[in-house]
From TrEMBL:
SUPFAM superfamilies: CO dehydrogenase molybdoprotein N-domain-like (SSF54665), Molybdenum cofactor-binding domain (SSF56003). One of its GO terms (molecular function) is oxidoreductase activity. Residues 222-300 form the Aldehyde oxidase/xanthine dehydrogenase a/b hammerhead domain. InterPro entries: Ald_Oxase/Xan_DH_a/b (IPR000674), Ald_Oxase/Xan_DH_a/b_sf (IPR036856), AldOxase/xan_DH_MoCoBD1 (IPR008274), AldOxase/xan_DH_MoCoBD2 (IPR046867), AldOxase/xan_DH_Mopterin-bd_sf (IPR037165), N-heterocyclic_Hydroxylase (IPR052516), OxRdtase_Mopterin-bd_su_IorB (IPR012368), TAT_signal (IPR006311). This is Isoquinoline 1-oxidoreductase beta subunit. Pfam families: MoCoBD_1, MoCoBD_2.
Length: 724
């Protein structure tokens, strides 16, 4: 049998002896009520589409709610069902949560863009984009229950209320549980398309905003949670790929017969950029991989040296021709001509690797006739919920069934389909045997898809009173939005702003990395503000107060962060505080306190304080956990992490030379204060990480009078700054 996490299947659903599924859909899908005691009707429904219910209700009161988002530790397995349960007035102790089918037409969120329906767990948009979807679906499920109870009791629906999985009729003092209503459930002739005003008033929330334990944590603690790497299928074989160290290079295998003769090797499958091996077990596959003799071609990345390329980027930033204009507000050229003072600084950041805990992997089984496939994977989903497999196999999308599993870390890396597509290529050759493809850590480091290396040139103009009148930002690097996002200063009152992207491509694989462009670009912007304040002899807090005068929500986070960090109280000798403001869905101001070992160049972060406005907060304790994780990941990337490339080849290969923050190096405390807001939920997973680099750099400037302008702040760079 397939060893997977318990999930509802069509067969199991059809065999249910009791219960109903409320087919409460979105985006034009009509609601339907299907009794599990009417198999003919169920078969008719399921013949049209896969199981598409948001919720299943059983006579014993068990409520199964389907989660459409990936669960990679950020809490979507709780937050989205919790929103649904809130509007349904469900007894949370009777709720079970399962992954929904990967069918975007049914479970996709319209919150990404007008007309789109995507299942895409990226960008800290999950709760934000599904908030209204889940509220409305939950309210519709509640309405079906109330309508059925009204008909059963022969009373007006307006006289009914609900509470904790019960429908109540106050006039007759009648009460019936949701489970007991199952035999009497009927779909009403019309189902309200609830408006915001018709949904529950947030002041009446019983679940949203409370500290509810996460649903998946017990299984993760006791080891029963299934990740894709845990999947075992009968007859399963194992695949690995040798991709080389030069991105985009093409391989020529020179010892094919020798490899095929090795124990357990079943097949060699060449790809444009790699050599694939399928063997009976993983050890045999890896042994064969180590014995491959390959001639590699040159590629676009040949000759690229990551530490030498900045001189080229500086020349690109100095060119008179503009790049792609991203922001143009006011008249920057005029402000420059009339400026009393001009500040110009370059900030740099090296490549960074995702370092997700679970190695990339997938399992794909292609039917013997090649006409269908099953996929088991931990994925952040994407614009194609079938993850590119239909195109690889040349079959219709509906013939591919994706079983989403827990993810052992994503951070943007698992929003790529490359590892799933590779597995599909191998599985196509091995059908009907299921194939598990595993990337080793060395594979993922050397052939990673990194946060881009970039240079940001900032030019800021001030008037005679020291007020910032113009702010120009030129980003040089590869990757478009990967480097050019987050250059806006929407919460700062600066009358003239200009931002542009100047492309510089080096053939290196790139991908979204937690917070994408916010990390490098907010580092540059917020560090620049402190450098200006330092030269003007102004408190960075006062500078930001003035700039935020017309942005009250942002200003509130600034004031609260200053309060909880005791900004105006001097630090003990040898320490200093730095601050930074970031908007990434949520608005947040962070303050850190650091010290420096001036003999080694090591920076130690002692405390971090955060004031956060995240709109409606569904799970407060989880939001704080997200901020803590984001801060620690930020410190790791800022002080430790660095991918270097020499002659096009990645120099790091595993954690012995790609350094991560260690337990003894984490702050003594990370304090998060959540500010109340009546807005919709905003993303929190990517707000904390970008504030770390600038907060540390600003604390360093305050402590030493020296700027740090190149990420990461390695001991060597710190010593160089101290001695400059």
């Amino acid at each position: 049998m397939v060893q997977t996490k318990t999930e509802i299947s069509r067969r199991k659903f059809l065999k249910s002896s009791s219960g109903v599924a409320l087919f409460i859909g979105v985006s034009g899908i009509l609601p339907q009520l299907i009794s599990c005691k009417d198999p003919k009707k169920i078969k008719e429904q399921l013949a049209q589409q896969p199981l598409t219910a948001w919720v299943k209700l059983s006579e014993d009161g068990l409520i199964t709610i389907y989660n459409p988002a990936a669960e990679m530790g950020q809490g979507s397995m709780t937050s989205l069902p919790l929103i649904f349960a809130e509007e349904m007035d469900a007894d949370w102790s009777m709720v079970k949560v399962e992954f929904s089918p990967q069918e975007s037409e049914i479970y996709g969120s319209p919150g990404w863009a007008p007309g789109s329906k995507l299942m895409f767990t990226v960008g800290s948009r999950t709760t934000n984009s599904y908030y209204q979807v889940m509220r409305k679906a939950g309210a519709q499920a509640r309405y079906v229950l109330m309508s059925s109870a009204a008909k059963h009791w022969e009373v007006p629906i307006e006289e009914l209320t609900t509470s904790n999985s019960h429908v109540l009729h106050g006039k007759t003092n009648q009460k019936i549980s949701y489970g007991a209503l199952v035999p009497f459930l009927e779909m009403p002739e019309t189902l309200p398309d609830f408006s915001e005003a018709q949904l529950k008033n947030p002041k009446d929330f019983q679940l949203v905003g409370k500290d509810i334990p996460r649903t998946e944590i017990p299984a993760k603690v006791d080891g029963s949670a299934m990740f894709a790497i845990d999947i075992r299928l009968p007859g399963m074989v194992y695949g690995v790929l040798e991709r080389g160290k030069l991105h985009g290079s093409k391989p020529s295998l020179t010892n094919e017969n020798e490899i095929l003769a090795m124990e357990g090797v079943l097949k060699i499958i060449p790809l444009d950029y790699a050599i694939g091996i399928v063997a009976k077990n993983l050890e045999q596959a890896l042994n064969a991989k180590q014995s491959l003799k390959i001639d590699w071609s040159e590629s676009k990345a040949s000759g690229h040296n990551s530490q030498e390329v900045y001189s080229t980027y500086e020349k690109i930033a100095s060119q008179k021709e503009k790049g792609k204009v991203i922001i143009e507000i006011g008249d920057v050229a005029k402000a420059k001509r009339t400026a009393a003072k001009t500040y110009e600084v370059d900030y740099k950041n090296d490549y960074v690797y995702h370092a997700q805990m679970e190695p990339l992997n997938a399992v794909v089984q292609v039917a013997e006739d090649g006409g269908s496939a099953e996929v088991w994977v931990g994925s952040q989903q994407g614009t194609d919920t079938k993850l590119g497999v239909p195109k690889i196999l040349g079959i219709a999308s509906e013939k591919v069934n994706v079983h989403l599993q827990y993810l052992g870390g994503g951070f943007g890396r698992r929003s790529m389909n490359d590892f799933v597509e590779e597995c599909a290529i191998l599985a196509k050759e091995m059908a009907p045997l299921p194939v598990k493809l595993i990337w080793t850590r060395e594979d993922d480091v050397t052939y990673g898809a990194f946060r881009p290396l970039s240079l940001q040139r900032l030019t800021v103009n001030t008037d005679p009173e020291g007020n910032i009148t113009a702010f120009s930002h030129a980003v040089v690097g590869d990757g478009g939005n990967l480097v050019a996002s987050a250059v806006a200063n929407d919460h700062y009152d600066i009358p003239n702003q200009f931002a542009e992207w100047r492309e510089a491509s080096n053939g290196i694989r790139l991908k979204h990395w937690r917070a994408v462009g916010h990390g490098p670009n907010k580092f540059a912007i917020e560090s620049m503000l402190d450098e200006i304040a330092w030269k003007q002899g102004t408190d960075p807090l006062e500078l930001r107060r003035k700039l935020m005068a017309k942005a009250p929500r942002a200003l509130a986070t600034l004031e609260k962060a200053a309060e909880i960090s005791q900004w105006n109280t001097p630090s003990v000798e040898g320490r200093a505080k730095g601050m930074a403001f970031v908007e990434h869905g949520s608005l947040g101001t962070g303050v850190c306190e650091i010290s420096i070992d001036r003999s080694t160049g090591n920076i130690l972060v002692h405390h971090f304080w955060i004031a956060l406005d995240a709109g409606v907060v569904v799970q407060p304790d989880n939001v704080k956990a997200q901020m803590e994780g984001g801060i620690i990941m930020g410190i790791s990337s800022v002080l430790k992490e660095q991918i270097t490339i020499v002659d096009g080849q990645v120099q790091q290969s595993n954690y012995h030379d790609y350094n991560l923050l260690r337990m003894q190096e984490i702050p003594e405390s990370i304090e998060t204060v959540i500010l109340e807001s009546s807005e919709i939920p905003e993303g929190v997973g990517e707000t904390a990480t970008p504030m770390v680099a600038c907060a540390i750099a600003n604390a360093f400037l305050k402590l030493t009078g020296k700027p740090l302008r190149h990420l990461p702040f390695s001991p060597e760079r710190v010593l160089q700054a101290l001695n400059s």
